[in-house]
Each structure stands twice: as C-alpha cells, then as structure tokens.
Amino acid sequence: MTGRQEGRARPDTVQVGASAAGSADSPPTSTPAEAEVYLTPAMVAMMVPGLTTGNLAQLRYEGRGPKFLKPTPRTVVYRRRDVIVWLNEHERTTTRN
Fold first, then answer.
1. What is the mean pLDDT of residues 31-51?
2. What does each C-alpha distance from 47 to 25, 29, 39, 41, 87 come to in angstroms?
C-alpha cells in the first residue's frame, strides 16, 4: 500500500464485545468493562520497558511470549489481559533461575 489513506485513522486499541456482532437496532449486550482490548506488537513493546517488537517476535517463535491471536497470516494481536497474565507469571524476587 502506497500513499496516505485520507480519512482513515488507525485506532490505538480495538475493543470488541458481544455487541459488535449485533445489528444497529439491537441494544448492546456488553459493557465497555467486559469488552476485550487488543494490542499490536508495537503497543505491547511500549507497555513493557526494554521489550522490542523483535524480542516479542522471537518470544512468539519460541513459544515463550504472551498468548497471541493471528487473524490473518500477517497480523498479530494480543489481548491486554493475556499480556498482563504473562508478565505476572514472570514475577521474580531474585535474579537466580
């Protein structure tokens, strides 16, 4: 894709709830607190000090990173809650293995 697409702003996060599949006439079935927040690899890297998108790609390859979703062959997204769970699983009180 070349050039700038006018009028289309890419959101920083995407929230998806049960109401996303409903029609415009139906009332929302979930609240914003229940909606999932999806992050790009760049957003996850900004969230964790010292983590780069390259490190994150390597962690995905090795199966050691946070759970991720791959809706298309070239798109990777993370649930915010999965990133937080992954970080909490790696909490340490010493530098020893």
1. 89
2. 37, 30, 10, 10, 11
Give me the phi and psi of 4, to 5 degrees please: -100, 135
Distance CA 36, CA 69 (A): 13
Q: What is the pTM of this model?
A: 0.66
Q: What is the pLDDT of residues 49-78, one digit of tens each?
A: 999 999 999 999 999 999 999 999 999 999
Three-state SS across 13-31? Answer: CEEECHHHHCCCCCCCCCC
Q: Please tell me the distance from the alpha carbon of residue 45 to that of residue 68, in angstroms, as a whole number.
A: 14
DSSP letter for 74, please. T
Residue 31 confidence class, pLDDT cut points 50, 70, 90: low
Q: Quick one: DSSP state of residue 11? A: P
C-beta separation of 75 from 38 below 8 A: no
What values do phi and psi take at 88, rounded to 5?
-65, -30
